[in-house]
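Hey everyone, long-time lurker, first post.

I ran two proteins through the pipeline my lab uses and got sequence/structure pairs for each. Pasting them in order. The first:
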Amino acid sequence: ALEAYQQAASSYPHDHPEKAQMLCNRAACYTMLKMWVILPPKEAAKECSNALAISPGNVKALLWRSKAYEAQGLYKQALSDIQSLNKTTDSTTDTKAAEQRLKDIMS
């Protein structure tokens, strides 16, 4: 799946919305599989930042970058992303719980 998403992302122009989606999917794969040895959380966050540069406000990118930041101990950045996501109609009980968890960690 990772290779397929990379190939798909490479097939789109730099600013195409579908490229952003493919970058998000790659980051999600790494995060879900906990493959930090292959792609450290810093790189997963970078993939999501690239996706957000193409598609600002992309909720998947915000979610996965928040998870990648949290894995790096970058709780302030993780909280910022999850709060941005929670301001959208795509917020869920899980994302609201993640926001509270991050607030608790930081207090």
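...and the second, right after it:
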Amino acid sequence: MVNRKDHQIVAAWKRLMERLKRQEVHPKHQYLDNEASDLYKKAIEEANMTYQLATPHMHRANIAERSIQTAKNHLKSILAGLDD
């Protein structure tokens, strides 16, 4: 993805969906950040999928945010155990 413009995000999402379908994975629902564009939401609806927006100011409820925090904590624990 070259940048985070709406059309670039939708194009990357469509490539991902094609790749998943080739692997016989058929997503039906997607959790989105509150910053998701109308174009992105429309593309999801056109693919006969549903979406749910994260609750504003509740980063703990956003699955993606929680996953990022878990990865950061894991990396920090690895780095803390390394010798200088």
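Reply from user beta_strand_b:
Welcome! Quick read of the second one: The first helix runs from residue 6 to 22. The longest strand covers residues 29-32.
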